[in-house]
Amino acid sequence: MEASTDQFIRYLATERGLSVAYQSSVRQTLDALAGWLKSRKTSLRDLGTEELAEFLSTRKRAGLNAASLRITTVHLKIFFRWSVMKGMLAMDPAEPLLAPRPDMTLPETLHAGELVKLLESIDPAQPLGRRDRAILELFYASGLRLTELCQARLETLDTEDGFLRITGKGGKTRIVRVGHKALEAIADYLKNERPSLVRKKTSSHIFISVRGGALSPDRVRQIVKERAKLAGIDQNVYPHLLRHSFATHLLEGGADLRVIQELLGHADIATTQIYTHVDRQRLKAVHRKFHPRG
After folding, report:
1. Domain 2-85 has what CATH class?
2. Which of 130, 243, 244, 249 is catalytic?
3. CATH code for the structural domain at 112-289
4. CB of 275 closer than 8 Å to CB of 260
5. Every domain range in the chain assigned CATH 1.10.150.130
6. Active-site residue identified among 130, 131, 140, 275
7. Torsion from C-alpha of 66, 67, 68, 69, nearest 10 degrees
8. Of these residues, 16, 77, 153, 169, which one is catalytic?
9. Is 240 considered catalytic here?
10. What is the pLDDT of residue 278?
C-alpha cells in the first residue's frame, strides 16, 4: 500500500500537475486506508466495494462530516481508477461508491462596515503596516484564495489597468480585477516598504517577510487574525472569510452570478450558487424587519 501510495502521489504531481496541498490531502486519505487495512489484516487486492463502504463508515464514526467524506470518496475513486489503469488491480472496487452530498452550510461573511473598520485600522506608518494593509485590501478587492495571494508575483500585476494574473486550482490561470483602493495600498507598499525588505535572494513575490522570503500561508493567516484582533473585531477572521465577503457583497450589489464565478475561479457554477443562499437570507431578514406583515 505504501509503495502504491507513493507512486500515485508522483502521478498526481507530475502527470496531473495537482498542488502540493491536494497531494497531501490524498495521502492522508490513503494513509488512513492503509492503517485500516492493517488493523483488519487485509491487503489492497482483497478490498471490495463493501469493505470500502465500511471504511467510509468508520471515518464517519470518527467524526468526518459530509463534505470531508465526499472528498475522501473522490480520493478513493481516483486512486482505484488509476490502480486498475496501471494493472495493479483487476477491478475497481470504488466505482459503485456514491459520494455523500455535502451539508448546505452558508459561508460566514464580514459586514461591509466591519471590513472598513478592519482595513482602516491599519496604520501605514507602523512597521509592516503598508504590507499588511495591502494584503487585506487585495484579499477583499479580488476574492483571492490564500495560496493565490501568497504566490502572486510582481510580473503578473498590471498596476495601470488594475489586473492580476494568477494561477489557481488545477493550474488554471485567470485574470482578476484589483480595485482602486487595493491598487493604492499595493503601490504604497511597493514604493515605500517592500524595497527595505528585499534581500539578495528575494524572489519576485509581491508580499515578502522581514527576511525577504515569500510569505507562507500560515504567516498570512496569522497576519489576518492579528490585524482583526487589533481592530477590535470579535468575529473569527481568516483569509477565506474575506473571499466569502467579496463574493457576497458583489452579489448584494447586483453582480451577475456568472461574473462572480469567473472572478472566484470556480469551475462549476454550482459552487458559486451557495452565495445566492446568503443573499436570500439577507432578503428574508430585510423583509421581516421592514414589511408590515413580514
Report:
1. mainly alpha
2. 243
3. 1.10.443.10
4. yes
5. 2-85
6. 275
7. 50
8. 169
9. yes
10. 67
